[in-house]
Amino acid sequence: MLAFPLALCVMTGCQRHSYSETYYLISNNLALPYWQTAVAGFQRAAALYGVKAVVAGPNNYDAQAELEALQKAEAAKPNGILISVADVGTLQPEIDKAIGAGIPVITIDSDAPNSHRLFFIGTNNRQAGHLGGQRVVDKLGGKGNVVFFTMPGQPNLDERLSGYEEIFASHPGIKTVEIFNIKGDSGNAFDATQRYVAQTGANKIDAFICLEASAGKDVGEVLKRGNLHDRLLVAMDIDPDTLQLIKDGWVDTTIAQKPYTMSYFGLKMLDEIFHYPPKPIRTDYDVNAFSPYPEFVDTGSAAVNKDNVDIYLQQESEAKVK
């Protein structure tokens, strides 16, 4: 009597999913192209599985607004949450609260490693810093003044900075003049760069390094307007404007991540966890030799410059067609 239902399952796939299942993606800066790419991956996975995808969080950098989005998501009792952590101190207690309530939470892009999140999906950010740092060393010949544009306190950006600093530690001729806080506004990077490029002699800034996605195109625009071919710019991520600035010769290199992959794979893992939940859900898997999950899923990073930028521009064009 079971043969026909079993055969039907084989033919139809016996969909375990339901549109009543709801998964959240929560982040800051959702207006950035980087996060629009992540949203596309999240929604694609949801469409394949036939589940509901909800995206929440501020369009700008606002850790408090992201906390409020997480609290609202938790109150809705979803089947799982993906979150990029803007500020650990602000968001970690609520992540732990969600896990305590039985809601699976996976961090993507920016981690809260001491929280009770199940695991992290994203870039090895220290390695990304190593990639960029070695490019700076090679292009400057191991000597020059550099400025970083970042947002101190955001875990992934701090890890990238550490990666750069580890490379520069072996090259004492490279001096970090300032670690500039853009405070979530790339316009601040534009204004600061205008001041930096006016410095001359021993105070000349030889390289500008952007640790987050938005500043590269603004710094590049300053160099373009000033026709400053003697300055090095290393950006972060593959914003279409950043790729075009590479093509035009104003950005030397950008470090590419895979936000689409982070959110796509993240939703699939949340779905797996919902249907086959660990018992108990709150476990320190990083110190469990028999953990059902990895501590960290590295989605990869790559250096993009004039040698390979056309590949990324083509991918961008094909993604728009889809």
Account of the protein in words:
The protein is built from eleven helices and twelve strands. With 322 residues, it is α/β, with parallel strands linked by helices. It has two domains: 17-123 and 258-283, Response regulator (Rossmann fold), CATH 3.40.50.2300; 125-256, Rossmann fold (3-Layer(aba) Sandwich), CATH 3.40.50. Helix 3 (63-75) runs parallel beside helix 4. The termini are far apart. 46% of the residues are buried. Mean pLDDT is 92; it is low at 1-14.
Element layout with pairings:
Blueprint: H1 3-12, E1 22-26, H2 33-49, E2 52-56, H3 63-75, E3 80-83, H4 88-100, E4 105-108, E5 120-122, H5 125-140, E6 144-150, H6 155-168, E7 174-181, H7 186-196, E8 207-210, H8 215-225, E9 232-236, H9 240-248, E10 253-256, H10 259-275, E11 296-298, E12 302-304, H11 309-321
